[in-house]
Design a protein that fits this description.
- A hairpin with a 2-residue loop joins β1 and β2.
- The relative contact order is 0.18.
- The chain is built from 4 helices and 8 strands.
- By secondary structure, it is an alpha+beta fold.
């Protein structure tokens, strides 16, 4: 293995461990745990990948109660702007900054907490990702300027995963094969 490959692997591992809850204070609300990762100037796509690699996703704030909890607990003593899991699917020409927002989880986009002048595609930038900023009392901001970004908020479900029906089919079809392999292996 060459030195560049080894260095790359080590960097990826360091980033994944930095995004894990074991290295941060974890806060619990509802069926989720939250933690903050400090990553100055990190773009939204990289934050999303790291949050998923740590077993969660960028936080999705779907109710006023959840929003208040995150503001008053998870982000309480922090400064700066942090990525959340909202993104805009399209805004041709930047003419409709409040349209087409979604959560990374596919949850309904029914609750918002925009800063009064947001979303706005500030200075004509195509700001298609969601941040929350201490400067604005943790109100939401459509963002595209990485110099404002201090890190991101990760959310991880505390609910056990629901098995996919296909998993049962695969398991039930594999069991007879395993029995046959064992039977012939013993003969």
């Amino acid at each position: 293995m060459n030195k560049l490959t080894l260095t790359t692997i080590l960097m990826i591992l360091m980033l994944v461990f930095a995004a894990s809850p074991s290295s941060a204070t974890t806060y619990s609300f509802g069926n989720s745990n939250y933690w903050v990762v400090r990553a100055k100037g990190m773009d939204w796509d990289s934050a999303k990948v790291l949050a998923e690699a740590a077993g969660g996703h960028l936080a999705t704030i779907t109710s006023a109660a959840e929003n208040t909890y995150v503001q008053q607990n998870v982000l309480k003593s922090r400064k700066g702007e942090y990525w959340l899991g909202g993104f805009q699917t399209s805004d041709p020409g930047g003419s409709a900054p409040a349209s087409n927002w979604e959560w990374v989880t596919g949850e309904a986009w029914s609750f918002t907490d925009w800063q009064p002048t947001e979303p706005n595609n500030y200075l004509g930038r195509d700001e298609m990702h969601l941040g929350t900023w201490s400067k604005n009392d943790w109100k939401w901001n459509d963002e595209g300027y990485l110099n404002n970004i201090t890190g991101f908020v990760v959310e991880q479900s505390t609910m056990p995963p629901v098995p996919i029906p296909a998993t049962f089919w695969l398991l039930s079809s594999a069991l007879p094969g395993l029995v046959l392999v064992r039977r012939y292996a013993l003969n």
